[in-house]
Amino acid sequence: MVKPSKSDLLRESRDYILITFGLICYAIGWSAFLLPYQITTGGVTGISAIIYYSTGVPIQYSYFIINAILMTAAIKILGPKFSIKTTYAIFSLTFLLWLFQQLIGNTLILGPGQDFMACVIGASLCGIGLGVVFINNGSTGGTDIIAAVVNKYRDVTFGRMILYCDVVIISSCYFVFNDWRRVVFGFVTLVVISYVLDLIVNSARQSVQFLIFSKEYQNIADRIIADTHRGVTVLNGTGWYSKNDVKVLVVMAKKSQSVQIFRLVKDIDPNAFISQSSVIGVYGEGFDRIK
């Protein structure tokens, strides 16, 4: 077993700190703005909110039970590192939802009659929280797990996949309140969360091209293929100033994989020269189909 380096430990620590920050944003959005105004949305948290509105069972209990079942089923697909961080997020969010509900209770922070503002502010906080969690290789569980699995194999954004999964959940709140107004608020909340999430994660069908110049091009190419499952093309070049022959790696990847590629190049050759550029469209295996 390879002993993790100091940089690996620092990187993992940073991920967990940022995941915790994202979970705090998410828990505040739910506890301070959505639950007191009886607004629901999709995902396991939405299901748990509907259970809470109809039975009074605290949201954190049903959230934890449902996610425990989903995690058991999905752990093989998502991989051990992702699953560990997701398990951490589930336990942490269960605690944070309980904590902020104890601190805030059913207080209407914005005052009575401010349902729409609570909907927008709460959804924005939830979207920011989810985005921060996702870009640090974590998940809050539930339909996030489903979205992460689909995004791994298909070119579908996190926000869009969550939107598809959650329409039925939001519609079902009508049977609790018998009020279409609550359903509309739920859909507004879902759209805002999905939009903010995509802004944070930067995965809205955007691809990037890397040009990597390094003497360690072979090791870098092998790592990119093994870790990101992206193809690498090696070009022959000449540095016109030095007149030396150089190898240039060309990599097409998802924008959400940019951080991972930068990290692995830095680990192998901190002095590598890297150029990253956005591309309008990439078509072929692993990307969009040619239309």
Question: Can you characterise this structure?
Answer:
This protein is an alpha+beta fold. It has eleven helices and four strands; from the N terminus they run αααααααααβαββαβ. It has helices at residues 6-34, 43-55, 59-78, 80-104, 115-135, 143-153, 158-171, 174-177, 180-201, 217-228, 258-268; strands at 207-213, 232-239, 244-254, 273-279. Helix 1 (6-34) runs parallel beside helix 4 (80-104) and helix 5 (115-135) packs parallel to helix 9. The radius of gyration is 22 Å and the shape is elongated. The N and C termini lie far apart (46 Å). The model has no long low-confidence stretch (mean pLDDT 82).
Question: Would you summarize the structure shown here?
Answer:
The chain has 291 residues and is an alpha+beta fold. The protein has helices at 6-34, 43-55, 59-78, 80-104, 115-135, 143-153, 158-171, 174-177, 180-201, 217-228, 258-268, and strands at residues 207-213, 232-239, 244-254, 273-279.
